[in-house]
């Protein structure tokens, strides 16, 4: 339901936009706004106008659902130009999230007042767009070029007091936005029209501006929109207003159609659809109420999980039977809260209250009152099974037992308990208090209410929470293992680790597979390979670079050397002649003549084997929907958001091309113990796509 109404209160004309859930500027809203504006201007009894919104927020932007449709009149820039040209003063009365086109609407009004909880941003670049209704022109005129740059290119969000300080809004207060506007009018008689666009940009230092822009763009490699947004912003002082507005509009219209914007829209809606599916599951099987949660193991992972729980207001018991480990865990927690306090992210009261939610204990019987217990001990099946035997004995009836294993068989863990229906996987990513992903791993016997509880907790922790099935490595690490295997084989054949890493970085990953391996630890990969024993294919077993590095004590960043060499205190590795020598000797031993690889071959081999493995995951029913695989890799492994996700990217490449490329490698794939997924073949043969399947 969409309504835009005009109400007269004495000489005030109040235009209210009502288009749930977030008052997005759909065609109907734009048309309604224009019509009510014309009525208000024609009404001699109205002297001043207020624009406000019903519901939980002022306009949160253009209607993203319309971006795949042809442009429809009236266009927002025209509506805003009419508003700004109003001979009667117009006040925007703001609350909630004033975003994108919503902020542009507010900027076109003559005055702005806001509720104290309101926030302001132009997040268009996060959707692959640039502001398309005057944002790049009106914002710098009000707040100056440097802050406009941070907001338009860097996506900086302002709270209401910062917005007031910056001159973005003119008044601020508690209460209903309309009442705030009425108060503002009373305090500032007589108001006259004050168009933003005719003002000039306040003076600024152009060199400092350009340096700031370079700094921001460096943090956004591969993304096209921020560069174009900057281009449009410069128009605010380089071009006459009408030319600058026209240029902004042309860039915006072209961006709507761009591959990156389409990909980012796909991700935007996929994230919300996932949250909706999780909510529906929680409704179908009411979750268990969580009054207290216990975490077993106070290592980096366990303390990180405890932090997540405390940040979400949950009473938490952190247990480690080794007092020294527990002390280290407590120190990690304390330093996190003091850091948050120092950075102003938490007040002292908040930090103290959250820290007090975490109680540290050294005996497992402290789990007695917990409704949920999350185990985060050493990654070894026998160790975890022993912990679960004890937990089964000590936990109260009905308590849920979760494991944070990153690849072990959770059915085998559940099997040692007398409550298999209450055992589930909750795979957090390190550092748990930072990383957005949570894989919730279903076991064979898991009860629906247990699954619902884990999913609901994930949402409460602010994680992108994806339900997956139980298999070695689940979704994320299973695909990671396949990519790492392919990358290692490429190196064995003659590519340099730094070439492989560069190619994947240029694709948009924050780091390449060897850089990631050095960060995560060569010892972790070594232990994983030991654990896989007979299941390693002959090709994988023969490509034993991990064992060779491990034997030399090259454990990655933590030991100062792995695939790369690290200067003390440096996280950026240097290519190491020792590794080049080790590789040369390895190839010689195996009778391999090194060859060079094109960047395209490297990229395709790393990605296409993952796409094939993802198709197997679908075939095996490990995920409910293809998009879940994309969300796991987007939020847990740095897949570039502007490429939409692994399977979205596969769809863009064309499945037929992927299958025919994989067919060309089928002998090599067989050596690795892999076949082309029948599902992938079928989709390709039918000319279909993953995300429509
Ligand atoms: C723009 O404005 C371009 C202009 O410069 C140029 C114009 C010419 N459109 O996130 P939630 C839906 S670009 C359509 O779960 P929250 C969303 O899909 C835009 N629908 O709630 C969901 O639907 P469902 C710039 C939208 O409270 C429901 O609303 N603006 C839009 O966690 C609830 O969303 C942005 O980029 C939209 N613009 O967060 C803001 N926004 O229930 C994007 C939301 O069917 N939006 N929906 O799944 C957000 O950041 C968050 O949604 C918001 C609320 C903070 C508003």
TrEMBL record:
InterPro entries registered for this protein in UniProt: 3-OHacyl-CoA_DH_NAD-bd, 3HC_DH_C, 6-PGluconate_DH-like_C_sf, ClpP/crotonase-like_dom_sf, Enoyl-CoA_hyd/isom_CS, Enoyl-CoA_hydra/iso, NAD(P)-bd_dom_sf
Pathway stated in the Swiss-Prot or TrEMBL entry: Lipid metabolism; fatty acid beta-oxidation
Domain (3-hydroxyacyl-CoA dehydrogenase C-terminal) ranges: 473-566, 602-688
TM segment ranges: none
Subcellular location: Peroxisome
Xref: PROSITE patterns: ENOYL_COA_HYDRATASE
Catalysed reactions, as listed in the record: a (3S)-3-hydroxyacyl-CoA + NAD(+) = a 3-oxoacyl-CoA + NADH + H(+)
Record has Isomerase as a keyword: yes
Assigned keywords, A-Z: Fatty acid metabolism, Isomerase, Lipid degradation, Lipid metabolism, Lyase, Multifunctional enzyme, NAD, Oxidoreductase, Peroxisome
A Pfam family that the UniProt record links to this protein: 3HCDH
Family: Belongs to the enoyl-CoA hydratase/isomerase family.
PANTHER family associated with the record: 3-HYDROXYACYL-COA DEHYDROGENASE-RELATED (PTHR23309:SF51), 3-HYDROXYACYL-COA DEHYROGENASE (PTHR23309)
The name this protein goes by in its record: 3-hydroxyacyl-CoA dehydrogenase NAD-binding domain-containing protein
Species this protein is from: Pseudomonas flavocrustae
